[in-house]
Amino acid sequence: MSKESSETRQPDASAITGRVASEIERQLRLPLAPGLYLVATPIGHLADMTVRAIATLANADVIYCEDTRHSRTLLSHYAIHVPLRPYHEHNADEQRPRILRELADDRAVALISDAGTPLVSDPGFKLVRECCALGHQVTAIPGPSATLTALTVAGLPTDAFFFAGFLPAKEGARRSRLAELAAVPGTLIFFEAPTRAAATLTDLATVLGKREAAVARELTKLHEEVRRGRLPDLADALATEPPKGEIVIVVGPPQPAEVDDTMIEIELAPALEKLSLRDASRVVAETLNVPKARVYDVALALKRRAES
């Protein structure tokens, strides 16, 4: 397709609208079985609600949320009129028995957070554990997640990652926690308040060094921004220009330490006592994750020195 035709092509709004409306109607007609439904909600853009999430909330008997005022805006946007009740860290112990009684009465209960996927840095873990222990059905309705959204736009490795949530507010505790995470063999993901983002970046640079990182701000919202660079550079930038809005910090994994010839020789010495030069080179190459040809050359040099 040419550039001109791709620019002038318009979507078939009528057909798409009809298909979407048809799917929403179909989902709304499906009976919602009793159980607990963990429903992901937008992290900013209201249009990120899935069709299934809308239908689940509309068909639920009751919806538990962190802040009823905040969640009422979302429900009003989609004309959903279901009773809202608060469920947050301050009243969870009081509300859990009530929810479990509702589930025992074969009711469909939905749990949402202020934004994103429930239980991710939000209350709900104990509720899910008790529901599972009592045999109640627990269903996840997937959707928006600040953690995965930041990870995918950061430009950093995604094959292995570790979500560490919020770091401690005090510098000493924060640096201690970062020291514990320094050896994690994957990309690190943190949530942070804008008022502490600059200090956290400074500590990240101090503890983790010059790793590649990204600071994602206001994801999916009007002023979305992703800054990418080395930790010291990002720390300097945020120190002079404090960020505003919701912050996710993504830090690349540790780089493997450079293997020098001395390290190879140390590994080769005991291996050569038991194995042939070729087999010892293969074993050491696999152990240190370096090319076999390089280890073989070091082994030959080591052998020559021993014979001279």
Q: Would you write up a description of this structure?
A:
The chain is α/β, with parallel strands linked by helices. It has three domains: 12-143, Cobalt-precorrin-4 Transmethylase, domain 1 (3-Layer(aba) Sandwich), CATH 3.40.1010.10; 147-251, 2-Layer Sandwich (Methyltransferase, Cobalt-precorrin-4 Transmethylase, Domain 2); 261-307. 48% of the residues lie in helices and 16% in strands. The protein is built from 13 helices and ten strands. The chain has a five-stranded parallel sheet with strand order 3-2-4-1-5, with helices on both faces. The chain has a five-stranded mixed sheet with strand order 6-7-10-8-9, with helices on both faces. Helix 8 links the parallel strand 6 and strand 7. Helix 9 packs antiparallel against helix 10 (231-240), helix 11 packs across helix 12 (277-288) and helix 11 (261-274) crosses helix 13. The longest helix has 17 residues, at 13-29. The mean pLDDT is 93.
Number of domains: 3
Percent range for β-strand residues: 15-25%
- Separation, N- and C-terminal Cα atoms: 70 Å
The helix fraction, in percent, is: 40-55%
Largest sheet: 5 strands, parallel
Unreliable sequence segments: none
What strand order characterises the main sheet? 3-2-4-1-5
Write a concise keyword list for the protein shown above.
10 strands; Cobalt-precorrin-4 Transmethylase, domain 1; 3 domains; alpha/beta; single chain; 308 residues; Methyltransferase, Cobalt-precorrin-4 Transmethylase, Domain 2; 48% helix
